[in-house]
């Protein structure tokens, strides 16, 4: 099915999520199903996720670089919106650079082309603060500044941003994007991110009472609780197209902290928690990234605001991990 230019009736959005079983994809699928109804949100990934999640609504096995399969599913469900969440993150991408580039770039170019051909009405594609590099200002990193990413992941996200802007300007494709900071969540463990120490630390604090951190204690990074990341993603997709002034990708910020600061917050709840530091290759990646993001453009253009700070995020994480372990 192709979207005609003059569709007058506002048809219910039918949504396809590629990479739905990932850290963000899982919670994004659940939130979108609450808004649009389970049957209107088709989850997909390269393999099945956990049973409950797959059973909640339509699920398809899709490799995000398989154009034919993606088009088949778009036509099968009359999809209007695609969220492309499939990607290889920073640390893993340094181990498999060619595969990371192929997955992160080819999947985006396929979706942008399908949108140009009017098979898709609106596209969401996540970028990352990884697009910044060692020469970018570390504090209050501006929306537009020097960007010389030192990771394959960051390079792919920076290139992807320019492809999004090109398809919007040249073909009118309505593609929207956010530069996520590190995302902290408890429902689905992340895979292969440099910021994922800030997820692991909460689980290890409860499970073992101690954690060996792969970044040094003073490494400040921009972070965000998952609920805020989902709120921002849905908010930018619900915004009126004319309010989306930036078609590369919006800076998105919430909180910034160091391993020492998150440890001190955890100790307010678990006083005996012990941390040790053993920086590895991920320290160089983290050192190349900003510490505090200026996201004033997102706050101006489509009224973004975050809800969680380090204290409230820590309360939520520890409470939910403890009940998850008890109910396991
Ligand atoms: C990573 N969690 O660590 C991702 C994120 C800002 C970092 O994009 O690779």
Question: What can you see in these coordinates?
Answer:
The structure is a single chain. With 328 residues, the chain is an alpha/beta fold. It has a domain at 12-183 and 226-253: Rossmann fold (3-Layer(aba) Sandwich), CATH 3.40.50. The chain has helices at residues 23-36, 51-55, 67-77, 90-95, 97-116, 152-171, 197-207, 226-238, 259-267, 282-287, 296-302, 310-327; strands at 15-18, 41-45, 59-61, 81-84, 122-124, 127-128, 174-176, 178-180, 182-184, 210-213, 221-225, 250-251, 255-257, 274-277. Helix 1 (23-36) crosses helix 8 (226-238), helix 5 (97-116) runs parallel beside helix 6 (152-171) and helix 7 (197-207) packs parallel to helix 9. (3R)-3-hydroxy-L-norvaline binds next to loops. Residues 15-253 form the NAD-dependent epimerase/dehydratase domain. InterPro entries: Epimerase_deHydtase (IPR001509), NAD(P)-bd_dom_sf (IPR036291), NAD(P)_epim/dehydratase (IPR051225). Belongs to the NAD(P)-dependent epimerase/dehydratase family.
CATH superfamily of the domain at 12-183 and 226-253: NAD(P)-binding Rossmann-like Domain
Q: On the 0-100 scale, what is the average pLDDT?
A: 94
| Beta strands, count | 14
Largest sheet: 6 strands, parallel
Distance linking N and C termini: 43 Å
CATH hierarchy, class of the domain at 12-183 and 226-253: Alpha Beta
Small-molecule binders here are: (3R)-3-hydroxy-L-norvaline
Going by helix content, strand content and strand pairing, the class is alpha/beta
Family: Belongs to the NAD(P)-dependent epimerase/dehydratase family.
Domain NAD-dependent epimerase/dehydratase: 15-253
